[in-house]
# Entry
Amino acid sequence: MSRLAKTAAFGGVGYLGGLLLERGLESITGLDFVDGLFAVAGSVLGAMYVNRDMVEAASRNMRAMFGKDPIYITEGEWKQFKSKYPETAKWLEKALEV
Amino acid sequence: MLDEFVLKALVGLLAKLGVDEFRKRGWMPQSYYVRTALLALKRDDLDQAVRNYNLSIEKRKPGERAKVAHEIIACAIDIRITMTEEKLAEIHRGLYPSVFSAEYWRRLFREDRRELIRRLRVEEQGCREALEVLGRLKSQLKNASDVSPP
# Structure
């Protein structure tokens, strides 16, 4: 019983810690955390799981299109990219498991 | 000894020519051409990128990666067209400044006015030619994706 309570307590602390971290990052960077995920997934997972050349080419295009690194792309911009280049967006989402 | 060497060299040369011909006619695997196209794009060589993409679907139906590569190349061309158009607009602003702008009056009293205008006209011509080439590349890319083998 005490183990169960301990597990629940640590789980709760972990949850609160995660929540605080997310809110903190959002307030510092002013970015929606989900938006940043695209870029993190693009740079880290992309290199690991999918064809690197394609991810690189797509991210170069995004950088040129929006004038900023994919890490700073907002959801609106992502949707704009998706509507213009649906195959690439679909492929990226599938490949990066976003 | 010499005969053997010549024979080996001849076989090597023939093999090389055969592979080159194979490659030129689009018989290599689709992924080979897609990767070559993407590498060309990395070098900013749009012409080679389009050529290799076209070869990738010459003998085969475009697969998922080829479709994505098509969009990536199209996107790169679109970006280049936008950049060139912006540059052209900037040149136009330089060539035909508004009478109410300070630039117009500043230009009026410049000694090298003619030289400046001549330089801008050369740049304008360059941009127009670049736009023509980019438009042609884009239409070639479109044709390649539309006309695919059954």
Q: What stands out?
A: Chain B has a mean pLDDT of 86. Residues 113-146 of chain B form the longest helix (34 residues).
